[in-house]
Every structure is written in structure tokens, then in C-alpha cells.
UniProtKB/TrEMBL annotation:
GO molecular function list: 3-oxoacyl-[acyl-carrier-protein] synthase activity
Gene3D superfamilies in UniProt: 3.40.47.10
One family name in Pfam for this protein: ACP_syn_III
Keyword S-adenosyl-L-methionine: no
Protein's name according to its UniProt entry: 3-oxoacyl-ACP synthase
Beta-ketoacyl-[acyl-carrier-protein] synthase III C-terminal domain boundaries: 242-329
Record field: transmembrane: none
Keywords recorded for this protein, A-Z: Acyltransferase, Transferase
InterPro entries, per database record: ACP_syn_III_C (IPR013747), ACP_syn_III_N (IPR013751), Thiolase-like (IPR016039)
Domain of life of the source: Bacteria
């Protein structure tokens, strides 16, 4: 077992974006929505979103991310000690989709899912860091969601917002830098879960009746309920993660929040009083792919040179089940 204080860092990242791209006009025409393009963009900031092709699954996206990362690092799947997948739209209710990923990679290692919705990648990073501090050499943290298959296509709130995609990060021990502070939490004091799928679980098993009533579609609280909670939870998580890292917001070079909605991003940077020009906002071109949204934005910022070596980057999110978290990482 290593020291619990060993440094752990993101050594590489990968992205998978489905080739099927739906702009606002296409969504309106395809599903007969009674809104226009201006309505969608003014309320979400989204101009287009990626939806997974019908012949692919959540695990397919994650496997492609894994293969891309492994190829760049000149690694084989059997050199991974652990695969952690953040998802709320797995291939099956059981087993874990991480097990399917391990099967498709033809490898043997610890592999499991974490279900924390839009906060899932941060929860998975926390588990991955702990695993390396417990002796693992390489942990692959993935986030993949196919939200398009769990929404009512006639519900204009959902169909214009949600998207599909995947991203991942390879974690390894390092001499310095890497994760400086992290925090995850779940607020169990609230009466609502924020977003949920009513049927298909042990409370309300699948039946002809649940299907007929549309209870397998995602239900989401209204924006006036979501926005204040998002801001309050993210501020709390950011404060704790910064305190653990011994830093302040003035020390942060780049902020990558959950890419859920352009207005949510605006609200949180205003609440934190953080510069807009140092905040990553790509929701307009990808939509909200739940737990994959944040790592997609992070990986793109790295690839585009927005994040440079030595930069201290703040990640923060809030998700269904009233989960929330923040991470500070030095690249």
C-alpha cells in the first residue's frame, strides 16, 4: 500500500462524440416540437447535440475512448488495474457496464460503475485516486451516457437539452502536481431527487402499464427548482475542494463546470465571481450529456491548448440525486 499522500494525476484523456449531430432545426422538424430555434437557444444556449447511432451502445462509446487512450500511451488493456465507469444510462440494469467494457477489451481487472448522474465523473475520479493511493498503478476513469434513449421525444424540455457522448481519463501516480483537493457529496435532506426515471427499478418494476404510461422516461424538476440548488451545492463543493488544496479562486487558471445549460454556467460563474474568459463553455455544440459533459469539456480544453502545463484547473458539477462535487487538479 502506498502512502495516502501520494500524488495522482490525469496522464491522458480521450473523447467519443457520436457522428449523428442534430441541430435545433432538425430536432424541431423530426419530433414536431411546438417551439422555434430561437426558443431553444435562448433557454439552453444549445445549438446542436450528438445522439448515439442506433447500432451502438453506451459501452461502445466508452470502449472507443479506452482504446484511444491506451493507443496513445502505448499500453495494453491488461496493464490497467481498474476500470471505473460513471454512467446513469448503462447497457443493462445489471451487470455493471464497466464489466461489459472489460469484456470488450478482453481484460481482467476490477471494473465497476458509479451512478451519480452529472456529478459521476467527479465521484469516479475520487474513487480512482483512492485506488492508486491503495496500490494501483493505472486506473481508467470513464464517463459515458446515452441520455437520448431515456427521454420522451415529445417533451420539448428534454429532447432539446440532452445528448450522448463519452470521455475518459487515465490516472497514474506522479512526483508532483495532479489532484490537489477534491470533494463529493449528496444532499439527502431535500424532498426531491431532482431528476429520476420512475419505473424499471425495484420500487416500480417494468410492466406493460409502466411502459404505456411513459414511466421509463427521464423526469426533471423545473428550472426554478434546479438553478438555486445547483449554485448552492457547487459553491459549497468548490469552497471545500479549494480549502483542501490550500488555494483560493484567485489561484485557479481554468474553470470547467458541468455543461448542463448555458444559463447554469452563467449563474455559477456569477455566484463565484470567476472570470468568464477563463471558464470553459462548450454546451452550445454538444448539449448536456450528463456525466460525460464535464470530462468532454475538460478533454477538449486540454486538446485545444486552453489548459497548459502547470495550470491549476477547477472542476465542479451537480447532478440528479442531489449529488455534487468539485476537484482541483494541476496539469
Amino acid at each position: 500500500m502506498r502512502s495516502s499522500m501520494v500524488n495522482v494525476a490525469i496522464k491522458d484523456m480521450g473523447i467519443y462524440l457520436p457522428s449523428q449531430v442534430l441541430d435545433n432545426k432538425t430536432v424541431i422538424e423530426t419530433f414536431g416540437l411546438d417551439v422555434d430555434e430561437a426558443w431553444i437557444e435562448s433557454r439552453t444556449g444549445i445549438k446542436q447535440r450528438h445522439w448515439l447511432e442506433e447500432d451502438k451502445t453506451t459501452s461502445d462509446m466508452a470502449v472507443q475512448v479506452a482504446k484511444d487512450i491506451l493507443a496513445r500511451r502505448n499500453l495494453q488493456p491488461n496493464q490497467l488495474d481498474r476500470i471505473i465507469l460513471a454512467t446513469c444510462s448503462g447497457d443493462y440494469p445489471s451487470p455493471a457496464t464497466a464489466a461489459v467494457i472489460a469484456q470488450k477489451l478482453h481484460t481482467r481487472c476490477s471494473a465497476f460503475d458509479i451512478s451519480a448522474a452529472c456529478s459521476g465523473f467527479l465521484f469516479a475520479l475520487e474513487a480512482g485516486v483512492a485506488a492508486i493511493r491503495n496500490g494501483d498503478e493505472r486506473v481508467l476513469v470513464l464517463a459515458a451516457d446515452t441520455r437520448s434513449r431515456f427521454i420522451n421525444k415529445q417533451d420539448h424540455r428534454s429532447v432539446v437539452l440532452f445528448a450522448d457522448g463519452a470521455a475518459g481519463a487515465l490516472l497514474e501516480p506522479v512526483e508532483s502536481g495532479g489532484f490537489l483537493g477534491m470533494f463529493t457529496g449528496t444532499d439527502g435532506t431535500l424532498p426531491s431527487l431532482g431528476a429520476w426515471i420512475p419505473a424499471g427499478g425495484a420500487i416500480n418494476p417494468t410492466s406493460a402499464e409502466t411502459v404505456a404510461q411513459g414511466e421509463h422516461y427521464l423526469k426533471v424538476d423545473t428550472l426554478p427548482q434546479i438553478f438555486p440548488l445547483f449554485v448552492g451545492h457547487v459553491k459549497e463543493a468548490v469552497d471545500i475542494a479549494l480549502t483542501k488544496s490550500g488555494l483560493s479562486l484567485d489561484d485557479i487558471d481554468v474553470f470547467v463546470p458541468h455543461q448542463g445549460n448555458a444559463h447554469l454556467i452563467d449563474y455559477i460563474i456569477e455566484a463565484l465571481d470567476f472570470p468568464r474568459q477563463r471558464t470553459v463553455n462548450v454546451v452550445y455544440r454538444h448539449g448536456n450529456s450528463s456525466g460525460a459533459s464535464l470530462p468532454i469539456a475538460l478533454a477538449e480544453a486540454m486538446a485545444e491548448g486552453i489548459i497548459k502545463p502547470g495550470d491549476r484547473v477547477l472542476l465542479a458539477s451537480c447532478g440528479a440525486g442531489n449529488t455534487y462535487g468539485a476537484v482541483v487538479h494541476q496539469f
